[in-house]
Amino acid sequence: MSERRARAVLAAVVFVVLLAQVLLYPGVDTLVAALGAETALDASMWFLAAEFAAFVAFAGVWGAVSDRTGRRVPYIVGGAVAGSALYAVLAWLPGVAAVSFGAVLLLRALQGAATIAAFSLSMTMLMDLSGGHGKNMGAAGIAIGSGTALGAPLGGQLYGVSPTLPLYVASGLLLAVAPLAALVTDRAPAGEDGRLRGAVRRLGRTPQLSIPYAFGFIDRLTAGFFALVGTLYFREAFGLTPGETGLVLSLFFAPFALLQYPFGVLSDSVGRTLPIVVGSSLYGLAVVGVGLAPTVELAGAGMVVVGIIGALMAPATMALVTDLVGETERGTAMAGFNVAGSVGFLSGILVGGFVAGEFGYLAAFVVAGGGEVALALLALPRLLALELPTEERPTG
């Protein structure tokens, strides 16, 4: 398969994984109730957290295994098929057997462990392609953004039919994408030592990776925050249905999707520093602005602003990972980036859920946005120092 077609297929895999994931967000409180939960906020928090805890635990495992074997496609296909089966079991089992919500959370974690293989390694295979790191990561970014942009409103409509229908649709999507992934030519170079211990040693020799990892953490923290706290806030504060909530969430995800590719190409031209610096400086403030908006119209406008800023940052941050490592370390490096992002998403869910439950929604928005600004300020000096030697040359 040509690289151009491979880029399209891999982006399609990323798109489907994210679409399936985000289908569940707009009515997650009704879903957990249908699965046997007795609370809304707490149960929703743990249901979302279980998947991302599995992402954290297994992203590095799949990355190290793929680097060791020099193969990525079998793990992408296997992850998609297993994830499809587990989504279906999640929807079906509570209706036919008396299972505890704890068992539901275990199934959710297994589903996360499977689907992170398809997601993380598809992104890694995009890194394996030529044509410009910003271009390839822009393709990944637009797939991520498009999947989340479509998933939110579509999921809201599916909830109007049945609270478990989004799970069945997610299952079908993953099963459909598996044969596409099987057609992609494996271009993964075999690493000298793909074992997890060796991968950690290699990352230890590239401490600069902590910079894009930090920004990946920050970016995904707010995404996790909006997946849980934002969803419940829009429903309670403005009286929105799951369908209407999905439309509000899409106001963030649509510009985030549409602008990823052009901003990724831009970062190939102007470097990674400018998009990341400008984005990180404004992103947290925009998040707080959404929480302060007195009407749903103003909150929606704030979501559009957050989406635009996020699109500026995301592809440049992912491309920076590729810039910093050799080709035999890409699987582990991207896995590390996805681990950092998953920890961020998980933190956004847990911290946002705790603060919202204890102190209210406005406090949660302030903590999420303020944390974004604070972490960005801590990481910015190292980012500037990293690219300064190549961007500023002596003039005299």
Strand content: under 5%
Mean pLDDT across every amino acid position: 82
Q: How many beta strands in the DSSP annotation?
A: 0
Order of helical and strand elements: HHHHHHHHHHHHHHH
> Helicity range of the residues?
over 70%
Number of helices: 15
Major sheet description:
none
Name the overall outline. globular
- Helical/strand content category: mainly alpha
CATH class: Mainly Alpha
Structural domains: how many:
1
Q: Gist?
A:
With 396 residues, this protein is mainly alpha-helical.
Please provide a written account of the structure.
By secondary structure, the protein is mainly alpha-helical. It has a single domain (3-186, 194-389), classed as Up-down Bundle (Growth Hormone, Chain: A). The protein is 83% helix and 0% strand. The protein has 15 helices and no strands. It has helices at residues 3-22, 28-34, 41-69, 73-96, 101-128, 133-159, 165-182, 196-204, 210-238, 242-258, 260-270, 273-292, 296-324, 330-359, 361-391. α3 runs antiparallel to α14.
